[in-house]
Backbone:
């Protein structure tokens, strides 16, 4: 184990160099790429046109089939009939035209009748010249002059002759008959190819009227002349309907998982085109899947890089965590890939993967944030590695399952990091695994048999319990190899049956009780500022272990005995007192105690001055320097160590007071903190003035609770009187 620790320490030292950190990330990326390469590598199909497929082939992706979509749109467009509109204004215009012809003819007839010779017995007849009435030809000319040139040309003179030769009453009857017939016919649609039929219908309707032959023929000609096309093709409306028909066609898609070729089916040109469309014919030279895998791995490593870059711990600790994460991650990917090679008929073999192992190890030894990041990354990797047998590049069921399983382990261990809780966490994870699996199965609405359900239940239990067992097995190895001081390790060290704690209790009982009091003060103060209260408490238990070498030289152990320092020179007393810090560190190192505990024992006095013996030496007339009466240090490097040092001085000072009041306690606490600040003992840790104020208030509250006023009972009073 020591050899392994030395090797790991050498690797950690290399990680201080940027080149080796980058190299570590490249190694992790390469391992990920190799692990997932075969899962994204496109499948090669040796298929030829008009060959017979030996297996059913499904589409690996969902793509739009533009060619078939266009065919469907053209078919929908061809189904749209041309749009024709009925123009009613044409009917009105033709009726008005025929009416105007009849009215004009009536006017001509009326004018002709007005030009008559006066009666023979009229006095005016003697001197009035005889006026001949206009001839038929003149009437026809008069009528044409009243009409347009087109009408005069299109209508025959025979018709005009018949009109002007009729009486006004006959023309009125003929007009009504003609207009009625025209309205009857043109109220219906008359396309271009039905105009002649419309003319015939008008002719048939007017043929059997009671008009004289000449006028009847004229009416028929005018009716035929009036009938014309009133239904016309609407280009804009037709185009709009066709566009709507095209837009109404849903795009044709080849869905992911859709069977393109059945087994033993002939590959015709259409099937061959679809195979080419989904990319199953040109996969040999396709680099896109590998580029996608490269980008996914890049994102994973980027997330890990940002986490460790923002991690607020010492550089040595950060490199330690990075190396630990890398080993757990590579180990997990190796297990993940190994499980994927298990050849059984179930594509969900990934359900047996003990994902919570890595999540719980990282949660216990580092923190839950990196555990969450690790869980997300592994879930994504698993969804790619276990994609065999499905048409998608990602097995979302396995990915969701692993994500939920890892998160369950992290959440269960929150503030429950005892070793006994890990097995309980495994059972809890198994329960969550079962719930997630059945949730996924039920949502698919598929039918499973008893064997399938047996597999799912077994996989869930194996994953959860194996995660717990592997966590318990790997945890001591990683803690020892990396010197990780986990919460679980701290709880174990706080056990009063620990050999060193029993040594303090039996050999220096006063020191033991002093350590417990300091632990109470330190833990409450650390938790108040967000530091590690448990580390401070356990460190306090061991911080004075060096006093067990000479317990009687320390005042808390001098019960009913003379103080030996009264007989010793100040220099000797100083050496004995100072030695307890270095002796304690040596004892702890000898017993392989965590470095953080050793540091608290070695640094809790920093380089403070032994004022009592220094002034005693000065009073004795000795030529001494202040530095000779200071602890060797080093000064406190962490918040926990600094708080333990302050709490140690505070507890000793308050214990020496006789019935201290709250004001006296507060004044003493603030004086000790101010003295530490002025002496520079807090210069090398990251405690802020605001945090020191919180620490002072916490100390005062705790001490006031311990040294509160007590009621003086009568028995106590009588005893005092007797003693007096």
Residues:
């Amino acid at each position: 184990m020591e050899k392994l620790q030395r090797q790991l320490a050498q690797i950690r030292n290399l990680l201080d160099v940027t080149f080796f950190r980058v190299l570590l990330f490249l190694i992790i990326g390469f391992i990920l790429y190799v692990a997932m390469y075969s899962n994204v590598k496109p499948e090669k199909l040796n298929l030829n046109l008009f060959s017979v497929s030996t297996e059913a082939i499904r589409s690996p992706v969902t793509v739009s089939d533009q060619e078939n979509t266009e065919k469907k749109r053209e078919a929908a467009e061809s189904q749209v009939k041309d749009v024709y509109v009925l123009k009613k204004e044409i009917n009105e215009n033709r009726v008005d035209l025929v009416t105007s012809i009849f009215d004009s003819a009536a006017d001509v007839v009326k004018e002709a009748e007005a030009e008559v010779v006066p009666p023979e017995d009229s006095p005016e007849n003697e001197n009035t010249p005889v006026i001949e009435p206009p001839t038929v030809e003149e009437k026809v000319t008069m009528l044409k002059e009243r009409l347009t040139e087109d009408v005069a040309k299109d209508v025959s003179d025979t018709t005009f002759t018949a009109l002007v030769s009729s009486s006004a009453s006959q023309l009125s009857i003929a007009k009504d008959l003609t207009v009625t017939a025209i309205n009857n016919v043109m109220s219906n649609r008359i396309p271009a190819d039905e105009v002649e039929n419309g003319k015939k219908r008008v002719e048939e309707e007017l043929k059997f009227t009671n008009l004289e032959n000449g006028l009847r023929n004229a009416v028929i000609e005018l009716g035929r002349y009036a009938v014309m096309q009133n239904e016309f093709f609407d280009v804009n409306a037709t185009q709009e309907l066709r566009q709507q028909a095209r837009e109404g066609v849903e795009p044709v898609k080849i869905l992911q998982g859709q069977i393109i070729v059945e087994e033993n089916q002939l590959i015709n040109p259409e099937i061959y085109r679809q195979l080419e469309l989904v990319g199953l014919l040109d996969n040999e030279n396709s680099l896109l899947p590998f580029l996608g895998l490269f980008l996914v791995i890049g994102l994973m490593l980027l997330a890990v890089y940002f986490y460790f870059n923002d991690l607020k711990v010492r550089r040595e600790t950060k490199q330690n965590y990075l190396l630990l994460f890398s080993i757990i991650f590579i180990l997990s990917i190796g297990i993940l890939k190994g499980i994927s090679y298990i050849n059984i008929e179930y594509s969900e073999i990934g359900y047996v993967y003990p994902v919570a192992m890595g999540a719980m190890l990282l949660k216990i030894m580092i923190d839950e944030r990196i555990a969450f990041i690790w869980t997300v990354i592994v879930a994504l990797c698993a969804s790619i590695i276990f994609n065999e047998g499905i048409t998608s590049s990602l097995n979302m069921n396995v990915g969701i399952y692993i994500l939920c399983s890892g998160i369950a382990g992290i959440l269960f261990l929150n503030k429950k990091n005892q070793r006994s809780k890990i097995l309980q966490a495994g059972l809890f994870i198994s329960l969550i695994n079962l719930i997630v699996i059945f949730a996924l199965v039920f949502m698919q609405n598929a039918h499973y048999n008893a064997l399938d359900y047996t597999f799912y239940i077994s996989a869930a239990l194996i994953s959860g319990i194996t995660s717990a067992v592997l966590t318990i097995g790997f945890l001591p190895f990683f803690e020892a190899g990396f010197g990780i001081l986990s919460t679980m390790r701290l709880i174990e060290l706080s056990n009063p049956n620990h050999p060193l704690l029993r040594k303090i209790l039996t050999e220096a009982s006063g020191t033991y009780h002093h350590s417990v009091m300091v632990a109470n003060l330190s833990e409450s103060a650390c938790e108040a500022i967000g530091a590690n209260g448990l580390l401070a408490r356990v460190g306090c238990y061991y911080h004075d272990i060096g006093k067990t070498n000479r317990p009687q030289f320390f005042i808390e152990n001098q019960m009913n005995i003379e103080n030996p320092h009264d007989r010793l020179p100040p220099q000797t007393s100083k050496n004995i007192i100072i030695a307890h810090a270095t002796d304690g560190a040596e004892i702890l190192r000898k017993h392989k105690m965590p470095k953080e505990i050793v540091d608290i024992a070695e640094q809790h006095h920093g380089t403070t001055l032994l004022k009592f013996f220094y002034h005693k030496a000065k009073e004795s007339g000795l030529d001494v320097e202040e530095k000779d009466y200071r602890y060797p240090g080093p000064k406190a490097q962490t918040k926990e160590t600094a708080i333990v040092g302050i709490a140690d001085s505070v507890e000793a000072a308050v214990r020496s007071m006789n019935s201290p009041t709250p004001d006296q306690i507060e004044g003493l606490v603030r004086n000790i903190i101010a003295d530490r600040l002025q002496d520079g003992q807090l210069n090398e840790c990251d405690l802020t003035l605001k945090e020191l104020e919180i620490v002072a208030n916490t100390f005062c509250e705790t001490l006031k609770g311990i040294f509160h006023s007590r009621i003086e009972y009568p028995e106590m009073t009588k005893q005092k009187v007797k003693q007096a």
